[in-house]
Amino acid sequence: MDNCMDTDLIGMNIHYFLYRLLGLACEVETGINQEEVMQYIQDSVFTSGAIHGNEIKLLKFAEEYADYLMQIRQTTVKGTINKIEAEIEGHFADNLSLKSLGEKYFINSAYLGQIFKKQYGCTFKDYLNGIRIRKAAEMLLRTDEKVYEIAEKVGYKNLEYFINKFENIYGATPTRFRKRSLES
Hints:
Elements: H1 7-28, H2 34-45, H3 54-91, H4 98-105, H5 109-120, H6 124-142, H7 147-153, H8 159-170, H9 174-183
């Protein structure tokens, strides 16, 4: 086996690798300063000097760059989660799903589900149901609308399912909840 390698081929592969790393950073954060990232890469890995030790430098750089990408992603995800929260608050009655929100905000739906579990300690569906039921409780106290009308307004097409969810959260049916609140 020949231990000699074509330096032009190595150079091309390194350039491809660098541009791919830059591409990853841009995918995570679109407003990233590409020149700054390239300068960081150049300073971190390809400083002038002997070739010996570049393998270790490259490995160390890859680890640091992975951390850098994770930091960018966490910052971006926090902002996106705030936008998603606002979306849910404003459109809780709509047919929202992890898939539709993931597509709208460019996040993998499975990853978004994990974020919800970590951030709120519950699934996306439970989070959405909680908001819908809270809004329904507010409407029960503020209006004279019928329970089925409120259920529809907060996004439930099945009245029985709505009543079960409401009872699980408030310990009473919507009608009993309203009656108790009016009595007190």
